[in-house]
Amino acid sequence: MHTASRTSIQQRSLISQMFLICLHLIQRLLVAKFFVGLFMGIISTVIVYNLKEPIEKPRFRPDQSKFEYEKNQQTFDDSNPSKPSIWNSSWDGFKSENKFPRHFYLIRHGQYFDNARTMEEMKLTLLGKEQLEYTGKRLNQTKTHFDRLIHSGMVRAFESAVIINQQFDSKLDLIEDKSLSEGLPVAPIPYAGINQRDIETYGDRARIDGAFAKYFHRARSDQNKETHDIIVFHANILRYFICKIMQFPVEAWLRITLNHGSITQITILSDGGIVLKTIGDSGFIPANKVTF
């Protein structure tokens, strides 16, 4: 009797031990399966990620000598009509007809006698003449082959253009354009002493807009090279042109300050893109000779 009972107990103990062993094995298999799955998931993610084509983001290369776009990297999405546009690519009304950019060097005239009685007497002061000598020397140092030297019909702009030309190794013919003469384009915002009544009385926006359209546009089909034009004119119109070509609110023109003899450099790319390289650069003029 005792022998049978002892045998039964031993059998039950053996079964319990086998059950525990199986349970441990199952647990280890589950843990191993978990880590194998995790490892395979990581491997699969890495493989899928590497198979995807890299997405090139638009880039702009601020190269000091060219300031040109990396055009092949540019991507634009204008297909969504509900998406507000911050740039009107057809701002000049022209289509891209060739690959050549147009470079402009916009010069404010030198200091002049602003309290003179007549326009003809508003000539450059001695300091104003000296300022434009620095401007001409700076332009000549760039070793740029300039195509045209244009000036407004006002005496201070003409004198400034003459002095600039005197500093060049290769002289240019001077071109007068009276549409570039000084004027009031629009009433500035915020108010700064010029209101809409002043604009209606003294302003000449139609003439000023006509001058803008005449010079500022992408290259036309008959342009067969890069062009570099110098325009010597006046602060009001120059500031208005900056706002207009950058598609800023034109009423902001009076918020910009331009020193006498300063250089504003703008490039119009063949696709109508605009690169504003400098605004009112006068760092080449000694500090004690800078005026505005």
Automatic annotation (TrEMBL):
It holds the Pfam family His_Phos_1. One of its GO terms (molecular function) is protein serine/threonine phosphatase activity. The chain crosses the membrane at residues 30-51. GO terms for biological process: positive regulation of mitochondrial fission. The keyword Transcription does not apply. This is Serine/threonine-protein phosphatase PGAM5, mitochondrial. Belongs to the phosphoglycerate mutase family. BPG-dependent PGAM subfamily. Its EC number is 3.1.3.16. Keywords: Hydrolase, Membrane, Transmembrane, Transmembrane helix. It comes from Rotaria socialis. One of its GO terms (cellular component) is mitochondrion.
